[in-house]
From TrEMBL:
This is N-acetylgalactosaminide beta-1,3-galactosyltransferase. GO terms for cellular component: membrane. GO terms for molecular function: glycoprotein-N-acetylgalactosamine 3-beta-galactosyltransferase activity; nucleotide binding. Keywords: Glycosyltransferase, Membrane, Nucleotide-binding, Signal-anchor, Transferase, Transmembrane, Transmembrane helix. Its EC number is 2.4.1.122. Residues 37-211 form the Fringe-like glycosyltransferase domain. It is found in: Membrane. It is a single-pass type II membrane protein. Pathway: Protein modification; protein glycosylation. Belongs to the glycosyltransferase 31 family. Beta3-Gal-T subfamily.
Length: 224
């Protein structure tokens, strides 16, 4: 079982930051803050040459910065990635893996972003639509967007009325939401607790910070 504690040396972080930003303009390297979108993707070694390649060759390059987090170094070195959970088993402890990634993108990457999108390696996202949607919101407020679900004990959910956004379609946190999450984890690395399902666990964790799922559909029920 892997823990949520991020063990990354300064040298390892420096190496990631020294790499060219594969998906973004070089001018972003030195700017302190940008109204831009970072996308990070959860993958594992058995999917690096299939799903991860498809994501890398399609929608990920339309983000302002993209990075894969995985358990083993990728054979294709030109793909921006970091082996963040080499001590974790496949498909186990998804919440703790995710917590490590949220810690990494905020505390280890030198560049800060307005919006942070988390996806799985079987996700397909229309990046342009997401950017258009996000233009209406202030990233300095704690926003949490995605495809909403709500489960109750009546349909077998062991976590009661916990609600959040489905990780299969990905979800978005604003700069301020990521900052508040990292602040809580600085004080207590186990702040988010232990949940079988990563998306349910993160929803519960953010709720403890008074960050709740926001409306992301139009009046006709269609998603943005």
């Amino acid at each position: 079982m892997c823990s949520p504690i991020l063990n990354v040396t300064k040298e390892e972080a420096d190496l990631v930051n020294s790499k060219s930003f594969v998906y973004q303009n070089n001018s972003l390297k030195t700017a302190e803050f940008h109204k831009k979108l970072l996308c990070w993707v959860h993958t594992m070694s058995d999917r690096q040459n299939t799903r991860a390649l498809a994501v890398n060759e399609t929608w990920l390059k339309r983000c302002d910065y993209g990075i894969f987090f995985t358990n083993k170094k990728m054979k294709k070195s030109l793909i921006n990635h970091y082996s963040l959970w080499d001590d974790c088993e496949n498909n186990i402890d998804a919440l703790n893996k995710t917590i490590r990634a949220w810690r990494f993108v905020f505390s280890k990457l030198l560049t800060k972003f307005d919006w942070y999108y988390k996806a799985d390696d079987d996700t397909f996202m229309l990046t342009e639509n997401l950017k258009k949607f996000l233009q209406n919101f202030d990233p300095m407020q704690p926003h949490y967007f995605g495809v909403h679900y709500k489960q109750t004990e009546e349909n077998g959910n062991p976590y009661g009325s916990a609600s959040g956004f489905n990780s299969g379609s990905g979800y978005i946190l604003s700069y301020e939401a990521v900052r508040l999450l990292n602040k809580a984890l600085d004080k207590n690395p186990y702040f988010c607790g232990d949940f079988l399902y990563e998306d349910v666990g993160l929803g519960n964790c953010l709720a403890k910070l008074n960050i709740f799922p926001a409306q992301t559909t139009y009046e006709n029920g269609n998603h943005s």
